[in-house]
């Protein structure tokens, strides 16, 4: 059977950065350790005045198409996933296509365009849509362009302000992919939850602590569903496990839960039992509360074992390296985690060709999805072609006063754009260029 998956990937960060320990923590009168150690975040990316979800998406897609030698005629589908859309009718993919048509001779008039919404999981759902379209044989040899783009901003003084970020991930989905092959096995955990939502408002209403519990509960359901699909989730079978990463501290919790779950009744549990005992079983406790206390105690002991620490260092830690430097990119976050893990592998001479990845996506509201992927033959060349480090190094480091202005610029309820000077100079990229007569946003390519 022909394989289908991600052929190529590009990352585009917002061009500003807010240092959480040096700049944000003192202004909030907080200990920097809350950000760097507790949440696991050092820096958040922000969009400059002339950047937004469209420019970041179009700039990522443009570099990707140039690198792969593609023109609009090669693309049969453009799916954009976002939870930062500014229009309830016209999809972001039309704006992105409009941008790209400024720099190509042909157009996207025959591409099917859409926009996917389900909080942060929509990027993975868009990959699914593209996969299904190709598998169904409806692509006529053409490829899908899938883009996850967000400005993950919270209202000022919301606890979520510590976990902001801005960036886009563009992916080409195709037959016989060079980067990763997607599998047909998936597990879902989905429930009607009100932990994080934006009812006709730009900034989210968040119950932060509850959102963390819901993340873990849906992940557990998704694991159980994947096991029901017949997939054996032995922890040592996966080279990397990229998770949706709102902040690395969340992944620390999810990884411990996942490891404990999949080790139950395996050789790993037996070996660990000599050191920390067997995992608690519900039937051994009179009340649910006693059981939960015992599970928590076991999990704490588990995460301090050498076996767990080695597994975490190899399988999880590498996937967090970019997130620590950019914050939460919502729909793009899990796809950044995949890139970070593979980039780390390349830099440490770890050959992952043919290796299995377990990709754990999540969106508030809420749904988790877990699936396996196989690393394809061309992964090294794809990672080598990225310029992530260069983009991260070139970001302009904003002061707290600049942060306050930039946050206002990107607040849809204020019209401060005209009053604020850009902090970087655009070059060879798409930029926001003001509003048109019907309230549409306009863009131009700066040479
Ligand atoms: N040194 C070391 N650690 C410290 C510390 C210090 N000086 N000060 C605090 N910490 C630790 C805390 O103990 C805590 O760790 P644990 O959870 O392991 O105990 C961590 O730092 C964070 O501190 P707080 O709990 O005090 O932080 P907070 O209450 O101000 O906010 C938050 C944390 C709830 C995550 C908040 O940032 C938030 O609401 N974020 C947005 C929602 C979110 O990201 N939820 C994640 C799941 S939902 C999802 O994944 C979808 C999505 O993308 C939004």
Automatic annotation (TrEMBL):
Boundaries of every Hydroxymethylglutaryl-coenzyme A synthase N-terminal domain copy: 3-174
Top-level taxon of the source organism: Archaea
UniProt-listed InterPro entries: HMG-CoA_Synthase-like, HMG_CoA_synt_C_dom, HMG_CoA_synth_N, Thiolase-like
Keyword Acyltransferase: yes
SUPFAM superfamilies attached to this UniProt entry: Thiolase-like
Entry's transmembrane regions: none
GO terms (BP aspect): acetyl-CoA metabolic process; farnesyl diphosphate biosynthetic process, mevalonate pathway
UniProt domain Hydroxymethylglutaryl-coenzyme A synthase C-terminal: residue ranges: 195-409
EC category name: transferase
This protein's UniProt keywords: Acyltransferase, Isoprene biosynthesis, Transferase
Molecular functions (GO terms): hydroxymethylglutaryl-CoA synthase activity
Name of the protein this chain belongs to: Hydroxymethylglutaryl-CoA synthase
Entry EC number(s): 2.3.3.10
Family classification: Belongs to the thiolase-like superfamily. HMG-CoA synthase family.
């Amino acid at each position: 059977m022909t394989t289908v998956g991600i052929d190529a990937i590009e990352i585009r960060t917002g061009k500003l950065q807010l240092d959480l320990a040096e700049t944000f923590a003192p202004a909030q009168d907080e200990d920097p350790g809350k950000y760097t150690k507790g949440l696991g975040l050092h820096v958040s990316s922000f969009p400059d005045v002339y950047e937004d979800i469209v420019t970041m998406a179009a700039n990522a897609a443009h570099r990707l198409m140039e690198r792969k030698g593609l023109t609009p005629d090669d693309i049969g589908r453009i799916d954009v996933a976002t939870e930062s859309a500014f229009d309830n009718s016209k999809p972001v993919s039309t704006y992105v296509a409009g941008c790209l048509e400024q720099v190509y001779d042909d157009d996207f008039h025959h591409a099917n365009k859409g926009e996917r919404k389900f909080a942060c999981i929509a990027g993975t759902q868009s990959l699914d849509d593209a996969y299904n379209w190709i598998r169904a044989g409806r692509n006529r040899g053409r490829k899908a362009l899938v883009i996850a783009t967000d400005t993950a901003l919270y209202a000022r003084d919301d606890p979520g302000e510590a976990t902001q970020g801005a960036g886009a991930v563009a992916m080409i989905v195709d037959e016989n992919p060079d980067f990763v092959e997607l599998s047909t096995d998936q597990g879902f955990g989905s429930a009607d939850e009100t932990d994080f939502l934006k009812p006709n408002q730009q900034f989210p209403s968040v119950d932060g602590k509850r959102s963390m519990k819901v993340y873990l509960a849906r992940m557990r359901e998704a694991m159980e569903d994947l096991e029901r699909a017949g997939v054996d989730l032995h922890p040592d079978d996966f080279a990397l496990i990229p998770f949706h990463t709102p902040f690395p501290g969340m992944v620390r919790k999810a990884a411990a839960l996942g490891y404990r779950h999949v080790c139950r009744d395996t050789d790993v549990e037996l070996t660990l039992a000599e050191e920390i005992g067997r995992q608690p079983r519900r039937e051994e406790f009179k009340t649910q509360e006693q059981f939960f206390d015992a599970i928590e105690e076991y999990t704490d002991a588990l995460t301090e074992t050498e076996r767990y620490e080695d597994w975490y260092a190899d399988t999880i830690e590498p996937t967090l390296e970019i997130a620590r430097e950019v914050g939460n990119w919502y729909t793009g976050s899990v796809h950044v985690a995949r890139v970070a893990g593979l980039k780390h592998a390349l830099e440490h001479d770890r050959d992952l060709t043919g290796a299995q990845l377990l990709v754990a996506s999540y969106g508030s509201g809420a749904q988790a999805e877990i699936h396996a992927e196989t690393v394809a033959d061309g992964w090294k060349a794809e990672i080598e072609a990225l310029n992530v480090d260069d983009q991260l190094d070139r970001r302009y480091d904003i002061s707290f006063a600049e942060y306050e202005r930039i946050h206002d610029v990107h607040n849809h309820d204020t019209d401060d754009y005209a009053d604020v000077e850009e902090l970087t100079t655009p070059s060879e990229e798409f930029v926001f260029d003001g509003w048109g007569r019907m309230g549409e946003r306009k863009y131009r390519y700066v040479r």
